[in-house]
Structure formats: C-alpha cells, structure tokens
Amino acid sequence: MNTATAPTATMTLAQLRQEATRLSIPGRYTMRRDVLAAAVATERARWAGADAAKAAPTADVLAGRVRVPTLADMRSMIDKMAAEPAAAAPPRRAPDTKPEPAGPIWPHDAVTSADLVPGQVIQRWTEQTPSGVAVPLPCHDGQAVKLDPDRATSGVAVCRVCSESYDLELVEDFDGGYTAHLTVAYRPFLLSRAHRS
After folding, report:
1. Where are the alpha helices (DSSP H) in the chain?
2. Contact (CB, 8 A) for 12 and 37
3. 137: nearest Cα among 156, 124, 118, 120
4. CA 55, CA 63: separation in Å to the nearest integer?
5. Which of 11, 50, 95, 102 has the fewest other C-beta atoms within 10 Å?
6. Is the backbone of residue 107 left (phi > 0), alpha (psi -120 to 50) or beta?
7. What is the pLDDT along the chain (197 residues), one digit of tens a residue?
8. Residues 6+ apart with CB under 8 A from 191
9. Contacts of 185 (CB under 8 A, 6+ apart)
C-alpha cells in the first residue's frame, strides 16, 4: 500500500509512523494512533494546499486571467518610486557594546585609531632628555610629554591635538632607561587654544 495516498483511517500504526517521518512530523505525536492520524491528515492537507498555491499562478497565467508585467510596467513602477519623496531613515545609533581592549601593544608595534579604546595598554620606548624623560604619545607622531622620574613615575598625559587622555606609568628597563605604559582613559578634557577671530 502506498502510504503517501492512503487514507489515514485505514493505515496501521506502523504506516502512520512511516508517513509521519516522511512528512517531518515531530515524534511527540507518535504516542496515540488517533492523534498521529490527525497530525498526518493535517500535514497532508497543508502540503496539498501549498502545492495548489504554487500551481495556481501558473494556471492563471496560462488561462489569461493574470497579466504578466512587461518591461514598460516595471519601468513605470520604478519611475513612480523615484518620484515619491524618500522616507527619512531613522537615525543610526552607535552600538551599545564597546570594543574590548586587546592585549598590550608593544613598543615596536604601530598604533591605529581603532586601537585607542578605553583600557588598552600601549607600551612606548622613552627618550632621556636633560629636563626628564620624553614619552611619545601613540595618537599623534611628534607629540610627547615630559616627565621627571625623580619627582613622579606616573600621571595623566593628554594630547594637545586630539585631547586623547592616557594614564601614564614609567617602568624601569634593564638598560637604565624607562618604558612608558600608556593606558587609554576616556576623560573629556578640553584644551585651550589661541583665540582667533
């Protein structure tokens, strides 16, 4: 007996289970024969309706009851859409999740603006000068802060170009110099500039 076309009332429980498997009916319906028969009948009707819905437009088109859009129809629809005022797009919100800092950036590694996330540790080699230790800032080449290690080995460094702020700590090297550990810290500093009218 073909289980795909047999009425559910005349099918055995094994045939109903086989048909349920073919129709991808969940196993929770296989406990009772009447429930399984109803599920198989419902699923068959759903599949038959889907097949009829797929076939209907083709049959209607062949019978001439439905008009197939032409290229001119599509062009006029595009022109109508272009003539309508565009709806204002909702403003984009910044994602709520902030990027996590990666591991420390070593002194010889390049730093990009994407690396400047709060909490990111950036290490830089320092240069000894007569007035103290010069620490280059990672955000702008040529910008540096000077720190006297005899007075303090830590502080807050702020770039005067972009106002990016860092927690700065000098760590003594084995060669007698210092390595600077700059931790990106978001603090809204406002730096003054010469007033130009």
Report:
1. 13-22, 33-63, 71-83
2. no
3. 124
4. 12
5. 95
6. alpha
7. 455 556 666 677 677 777 777 666 666 555 566 666 777 777 777 666 655 555 555 555 555 555 666 777 777 777 777 777 666 666 666 665 666 777 888 888 888 888 888 899 999 999 999 989 999 999 888 899 998 888 888 999 998 888 889 999 999 888 888 999 999 987 777 777 777 75
8. 158, 160, 163
9. 118, 156, 165, 166, 167
Residues with Cβ within 8 Å of 67's Cβ and at least 6 positions away in sequence, in order, are none
Nearest one of 186, 174, 187, 183 to 124, comparing CA atoms: 183
CA dihedral 102, 103, 107, 108 (to 10 degrees): -70
Residues linked to residue 158 through DSSP beta bridges, in sequence order: 165
- Other CB atoms within a 10 A radius of the CB of residue 160 amount to 14
pTM of the shown model: 0.48
